[in-house]
Specification:
heterodimer; A: mainly alpha; 9 helices; elongated; B: 76 residues
Chain lengths: 228, 76
């Protein structure tokens, strides 16, 4: 069954294939049902590519990770016991494959290793933007964020995409992974925690930092008047 | 609540993850502070724009290779 999400929902029309429940789906794959497999492949590839891209440096490399993941899924399918959702299982394989590849590219830090001290901590807005103890209202804006030109202006759209893509490339892998799943894709917070094996609090911190970084860059581009 | 605290709570607020007391302080501040109201709006715009990125797609070659692998897997 194919459902068209209203444009208002995602900003453009996206075809979403509704997949059968896990037990039916896995049984269909086990029977060698080509159509069922193609449906899963097409339904999940965009989000898998985006997630893989958090750990590896190029789109081509992300494609290879996705391909490798599907091969690993096929190898392991008969052993899939349904203890997690099928999708979670597939995405876990993807994350592990992508991390390995990222390490090989020497581009990505080990997921659980010590992070640079300020990567996940500290203010997401430059403290200089707020009044210090000497101000009339300490902790309040020195000057409010400048208003933005409406991004609805279609001439801006391509440029906004470029700005966002650039920031994504600069984000630490974990922040990018969470942001890609939550905001670029449409996974729930719970799904993201399960896929990346992180706590709800950690998920929120990573998401917030990533969003704040993107907002900051959009502000440079869309902000009118004073820099914010 | 001060603005520098407000800006760090936006995602928790949008996820409905603030405890009731903090949420009340957040909303109270929002009602009084134009700068933070704008910040929250811009955060929403940011999230909206992220959701508008076009989907990435597998190249036709990769897609075909994976579909072929599925057929091979089943007939093996």
């Amino acid at each position: 069954m194919t459902v068209i999400l209203p444009p208002a929902c995602r900003g453009y029309i996206r075809l979403v294939t509704k997949l059968p429940p896990d037990d039916e789906l896995v049984a269909a794959l086990g029977r060698g049902d080509d159509a069922a497999f193609a449906a899963v492949l097409d339904a999940w590839s965009a989000s898998m590519l985006r997630l893989a891209r958090s750990f590896v440096s190029t789109h081509a490399s992300a494609e290879e990770v996705v391909q490798e993941t599907w091969l690993a899924v096929l190898n392991g399918l008969r052993a899939f016991e349904g203890r997690s959702a099928f999708k979670t299982w597939v995405y876990r394989i993807l994350v592990n494959t992508a991390k390995k590849r990222g390490l090989a590219e020497r581009r990505s830090v080990p997921w659980a290793s010590l992070l640079p001290p300020d990567e996940d901590h500290g203010p997401t807005v430059d403290p200089a933007r707020f009044q210090g103890a000497e101000g009339a209202y300490p902790g309040h804006w020195r000057a409010a964020p400048a208003p933005w030109t409406s991004p609805e202006d279609t001439a801006l759209n391509l440029e906004i995409r470029r700005v966002i893509t650039t920031v994504l490339d600069e984000l630490p892998a974990r922040q990018r992974a969470v942001l890609s799943l939550r905001d670029v894709g449409d996974h729930t917070a719970e799904e993201v925690c399960a896929l990346l094996r992180i706590s709800a609090a950690n998920q929120r911190v990573l998401l917030h930092r990533a969003r704040a970084a993107v907002r900051e860059r959009l502000a440079e581009y869309l902000g009118t008047g004073a820099k914010t | 609540m001060n603005c520098d605290e407000f800006v760090e709570l936006v995602t928790a607020f949008l996820d409905d993850a603030l405890d009731p007391r903090t949420e009340a302080r957040f909303v109270e501040h929002l009602a009084l502070c134009e700068g933070c109201e704008r910040y929250l709006d811009q955060f929403r715009t940011t999230i909206d724009q992220l959701g508008r990125l076009p989907p990435e797609t597998l190249s036709a070659e990769t897609r075909t290779a994976v579909l072929d692998a599925f057929r091979d897997w089943h007939s093996a």
